[in-house]
Design a protein that fits this description.
Length: 251
Amino acid sequence: MKLGIKNLIIISAVAILMLMVLIAGRVTNVSDNTNTSIAPGTVSAMPTPTPAPSPTRVPLDSNKTWFTQEEMLDAFGPAPTPIPDDTTTTVLLNDSGKLYPYPNGSMSYYTDHAGAKDPTTDQLVAFLITDDTYSNKFVPGKFVCVNFAIMLHDHAESRGIKAHMASVLFTGGPESDSGHMINAFNTTDAGWVLVDATGPVSDDGVIGCVLIDGSIHSGDIYKGILLRKQDGKWGLFNAETGNVVNSVDII
Protein backbone atom coordinates (compact mmCIF):
# COMPACT_ATOMS: atom_id res chain seq x y z
CA MET A 1 0.00 0.00 0.00
CA LYS A 2 1.53 3.27 -1.00
CA LEU A 3 1.10 5.27 2.16
CA GLY A 4 4.06 7.48 3.05
CA ILE A 5 5.05 7.94 6.68
CA LYS A 6 4.13 11.60 6.67
CA ASN A 7 0.68 10.89 5.28
CA LEU A 8 0.30 7.87 7.54
CA ILE A 9 0.70 10.19 10.49
CA ILE A 10 -2.16 12.13 8.99
CA ILE A 11 -4.20 9.02 8.21
CA SER A 12 -3.44 7.72 11.68
CA ALA A 13 -4.95 10.87 12.91
CA VAL A 14 -8.38 10.70 11.39
CA ALA A 15 -11.00 10.41 14.03
CA ILE A 16 -14.73 9.55 14.09
CA LEU A 17 -17.96 11.25 13.55
CA MET A 18 -19.03 8.24 15.43
CA LEU A 19 -16.88 8.47 18.46
CA MET A 20 -18.29 11.94 18.49
CA VAL A 21 -21.63 10.21 18.76
CA LEU A 22 -20.51 7.44 21.02
CA ILE A 23 -18.15 9.78 22.71
CA ALA A 24 -20.30 12.87 22.64
CA GLY A 25 -20.23 13.93 26.23
CA ARG A 26 -17.19 12.60 27.89
CA VAL A 27 -14.86 15.45 27.36
CA THR A 28 -15.48 18.95 26.16
CA ASN A 29 -11.99 20.36 26.30
CA VAL A 30 -9.32 18.45 24.42
CA SER A 31 -7.62 21.15 22.45
CA ASP A 32 -3.90 20.75 23.12
CA ASN A 33 -2.43 19.88 19.73
CA THR A 34 1.18 20.61 20.62
CA ASN A 35 3.76 18.57 18.71
CA THR A 36 1.23 16.73 16.62
CA SER A 37 1.65 16.57 12.86
CA ILE A 38 -1.81 15.32 12.04
CA ALA A 39 -3.42 18.69 11.57
CA PRO A 40 -6.23 18.07 14.04
CA GLY A 41 -9.42 20.02 13.69
CA THR A 42 -11.59 21.49 16.40
CA VAL A 43 -11.82 19.76 19.74
CA SER A 44 -14.19 16.83 19.97
CA ALA A 45 -16.21 15.52 22.85
CA MET A 46 -16.02 12.03 24.28
CA PRO A 47 -19.37 10.37 25.02
CA THR A 48 -20.89 10.09 28.41
CA PRO A 49 -19.90 6.66 29.70
CA THR A 50 -22.43 3.90 29.20
CA PRO A 51 -24.07 3.24 32.61
CA ALA A 52 -22.67 0.15 34.24
CA PRO A 53 -23.78 -1.49 37.49
CA SER A 54 -20.25 -1.99 38.72
CA PRO A 55 -18.06 -0.10 38.77
CA THR A 56 -19.82 3.24 38.23
CA ARG A 57 -18.28 5.12 35.32
CA VAL A 58 -16.67 8.47 36.08
CA PRO A 59 -16.89 11.15 33.34
CA LEU A 60 -13.61 12.64 32.21
CA ASP A 61 -12.79 16.09 33.58
CA SER A 62 -13.84 18.66 30.96
CA ASN A 63 -11.16 21.06 32.19
CA LYS A 64 -8.31 18.72 31.32
CA THR A 65 -6.69 17.80 28.02
CA TRP A 66 -4.56 14.81 28.99
CA PHE A 67 -5.66 11.87 31.13
CA THR A 68 -3.86 9.04 32.85
CA GLN A 69 -4.71 5.48 31.88
CA GLU A 70 -6.38 5.06 35.27
CA GLU A 71 -8.63 8.05 34.58
CA MET A 72 -9.48 6.66 31.15
CA LEU A 73 -10.34 3.25 32.59
CA ASP A 74 -12.45 4.88 35.30
CA ALA A 75 -14.47 6.38 32.44
CA PHE A 76 -14.43 3.52 29.93
CA GLY A 77 -13.06 0.40 31.68
CA PRO A 78 -12.49 -2.11 32.95
CA ALA A 79 -9.85 -3.30 30.50
CA PRO A 80 -10.75 -6.61 28.81
CA THR A 81 -8.75 -9.62 29.93
CA PRO A 82 -7.30 -12.50 27.85
CA ILE A 83 -9.60 -15.40 26.97
CA PRO A 84 -8.66 -19.07 26.36
CA ASP A 85 -6.99 -19.54 22.98
CA ASP A 86 -7.87 -23.21 22.47
CA THR A 87 -10.71 -22.42 20.03
CA THR A 88 -9.00 -20.31 17.40
CA THR A 89 -9.23 -20.26 13.62
CA THR A 90 -6.51 -18.99 11.30
CA VAL A 91 -7.97 -17.09 8.35
CA LEU A 92 -6.28 -16.06 5.10
CA LEU A 93 -6.73 -12.32 4.59
CA ASN A 94 -8.79 -12.04 1.43
CA ASP A 95 -12.04 -10.55 0.23
CA SER A 96 -13.96 -12.58 -2.36
CA GLY A 97 -10.73 -14.01 -3.68
CA LYS A 98 -8.75 -10.77 -3.56
CA LEU A 99 -5.65 -11.40 -1.45
CA TYR A 100 -3.98 -8.86 0.82
CA PRO A 101 -0.39 -10.07 1.33
CA TYR A 102 2.29 -8.65 3.57
CA PRO A 103 4.66 -6.18 1.87
CA ASN A 104 7.24 -8.94 1.37
CA GLY A 105 4.72 -10.88 -0.73
CA SER A 106 4.00 -13.66 1.78
CA MET A 107 0.37 -14.49 2.51
CA SER A 108 -1.12 -12.73 5.53
CA TYR A 109 -3.39 -14.41 8.05
CA TYR A 110 -5.39 -13.25 11.04
CA THR A 111 -6.74 -15.28 13.96
CA ASP A 112 -10.35 -15.49 15.11
CA HIS A 113 -11.30 -16.61 18.63
CA ALA A 114 -14.59 -18.45 19.14
CA GLY A 115 -15.14 -16.73 22.48
CA ALA A 116 -14.80 -13.17 21.13
CA LYS A 117 -17.97 -11.06 21.22
CA ASP A 118 -19.07 -7.71 19.79
CA PRO A 119 -18.09 -5.00 22.29
CA THR A 120 -19.78 -1.89 23.57
CA THR A 121 -18.03 1.32 22.61
CA ASP A 122 -16.77 1.63 26.18
CA GLN A 123 -15.22 -1.83 25.98
CA LEU A 124 -13.63 -0.99 22.65
CA VAL A 125 -12.03 2.20 23.99
CA ALA A 126 -10.87 0.39 27.15
CA PHE A 127 -9.20 -2.19 24.92
CA LEU A 128 -7.54 0.39 22.69
CA ILE A 129 -5.99 2.34 25.55
CA THR A 130 -4.52 -0.87 27.01
CA ASP A 131 -3.21 -2.25 23.71
CA ASP A 132 0.22 -1.52 22.23
CA THR A 133 -0.26 -2.16 18.51
CA TYR A 134 0.26 1.52 17.65
CA SER A 135 3.63 1.57 19.44
CA ASN A 136 5.16 -0.25 16.48
CA LYS A 137 6.97 1.84 13.91
CA PHE A 138 5.73 2.06 10.32
CA VAL A 139 8.48 0.73 8.06
CA PRO A 140 7.83 0.87 4.29
CA GLY A 141 8.12 -2.57 2.74
CA LYS A 142 8.39 -4.29 6.12
CA PHE A 143 5.73 -3.24 8.61
CA VAL A 144 2.83 -1.38 7.05
CA CYS A 145 -0.92 -0.92 7.46
CA VAL A 146 -1.77 -4.60 6.92
CA ASN A 147 0.66 -5.55 9.70
CA PHE A 148 -0.90 -3.03 12.08
CA ALA A 149 -4.44 -4.16 11.23
CA ILE A 150 -3.73 -7.86 11.68
CA MET A 151 -1.93 -7.23 14.96
CA LEU A 152 -4.78 -5.11 16.34
CA HIS A 153 -7.33 -7.69 15.16
CA ASP A 154 -5.52 -10.56 16.85
CA HIS A 155 -4.92 -8.61 20.06
CA ALA A 156 -8.62 -7.71 20.27
CA GLU A 157 -9.84 -11.24 19.59
CA SER A 158 -7.44 -12.70 22.15
CA ARG A 159 -9.04 -10.42 24.74
CA GLY A 160 -12.60 -11.38 23.88
CA ILE A 161 -13.45 -8.53 21.51
CA LYS A 162 -14.79 -9.52 18.10
CA ALA A 163 -12.79 -7.75 15.40
CA HIS A 164 -12.93 -7.48 11.62
CA MET A 165 -10.53 -6.37 8.92
CA ALA A 166 -11.54 -3.49 6.65
CA SER A 167 -10.10 -2.34 3.33
CA VAL A 168 -10.26 1.36 2.46
CA LEU A 169 -9.71 2.86 -0.99
CA PHE A 170 -9.11 6.57 -1.51
CA THR A 171 -10.32 8.41 -4.58
CA GLY A 172 -8.91 11.85 -3.83
CA GLY A 173 -6.43 13.70 -1.67
CA PRO A 174 -2.74 13.01 -0.96
CA GLU A 175 -3.30 9.23 -1.01
CA SER A 176 -5.58 9.22 -4.05
CA ASP A 177 -5.88 5.84 -5.82
CA SER A 178 -4.20 4.01 -2.94
CA GLY A 179 -5.48 1.38 -0.54
CA HIS A 180 -5.32 1.13 3.23
CA MET A 181 -6.06 -1.68 5.71
CA ILE A 182 -7.72 -0.93 9.04
CA ASN A 183 -10.08 -2.67 11.51
CA ALA A 184 -13.83 -2.65 12.12
CA PHE A 185 -15.82 -3.39 15.28
CA ASN A 186 -19.59 -3.91 15.31
CA THR A 187 -20.38 -2.29 18.66
CA THR A 188 -23.60 -3.24 20.41
CA ASP A 189 -24.55 0.37 21.22
CA ALA A 190 -23.34 2.39 18.23
CA GLY A 191 -22.96 0.03 15.30
CA TRP A 192 -19.80 -0.12 13.21
CA VAL A 193 -16.73 1.73 14.42
CA LEU A 194 -13.60 1.72 12.27
CA VAL A 195 -10.20 1.84 13.95
CA ASP A 196 -6.99 2.92 12.23
CA ALA A 197 -3.98 1.94 14.33
CA THR A 198 -1.33 2.64 11.68
CA GLY A 199 1.26 5.18 12.68
CA PRO A 200 4.89 5.72 13.60
CA VAL A 201 6.35 6.31 17.03
CA SER A 202 7.08 10.03 17.14
CA ASP A 203 9.82 11.82 19.05
CA ASP A 204 7.31 13.37 21.44
CA GLY A 205 5.39 10.21 22.26
CA VAL A 206 3.28 7.51 20.70
CA ILE A 207 0.60 8.42 18.20
CA GLY A 208 -2.35 6.23 19.01
CA CYS A 209 -5.49 5.02 17.27
CA VAL A 210 -8.08 6.84 15.22
CA LEU A 211 -11.76 5.92 15.45
CA ILE A 212 -13.90 6.59 12.42
CA ASP A 213 -17.65 6.53 11.95
CA GLY A 214 -18.56 3.16 10.49
CA SER A 215 -21.25 4.75 8.33
CA ILE A 216 -18.66 6.61 6.24
CA HIS A 217 -19.70 6.82 2.59
CA SER A 218 -18.04 7.25 -0.78
CA GLY A 219 -16.98 10.87 -1.18
CA ASP A 220 -16.59 11.49 2.56
CA ILE A 221 -13.39 12.89 4.04
CA TYR A 222 -11.46 10.26 6.02
CA LYS A 223 -11.63 11.70 9.54
CA GLY A 224 -12.51 10.85 13.11
CA ILE A 225 -11.41 11.02 16.74
CA LEU A 226 -7.76 10.48 17.56
CA LEU A 227 -6.90 8.70 20.80
CA ARG A 228 -3.37 9.93 21.24
CA LYS A 229 -0.88 8.82 23.85
CA GLN A 230 1.95 11.13 24.80
CA ASP A 231 4.25 11.01 27.81
CA GLY A 232 2.16 8.26 29.36
CA LYS A 233 -1.14 10.14 29.12
CA TRP A 234 -4.07 10.10 26.72
CA GLY A 235 -5.70 12.95 24.83
CA LEU A 236 -8.69 13.00 22.48
CA PHE A 237 -8.66 15.19 19.39
CA ASN A 238 -10.65 15.83 16.25
CA ALA A 239 -8.46 15.25 13.22
CA GLU A 240 -8.91 14.86 9.51
CA THR A 241 -7.00 14.55 6.26
CA GLY A 242 -7.59 15.63 2.71
CA ASN A 243 -8.07 12.01 1.65
CA VAL A 244 -11.46 11.29 0.11
CA VAL A 245 -12.94 7.82 0.65
CA ASN A 246 -13.88 5.80 -2.40
CA SER A 247 -15.02 2.67 -0.58
CA VAL A 248 -14.77 0.79 2.71
CA ASP A 249 -15.15 -2.98 2.62
CA ILE A 250 -15.47 -4.82 5.92
CA ILE A 251 -13.97 -8.27 5.49
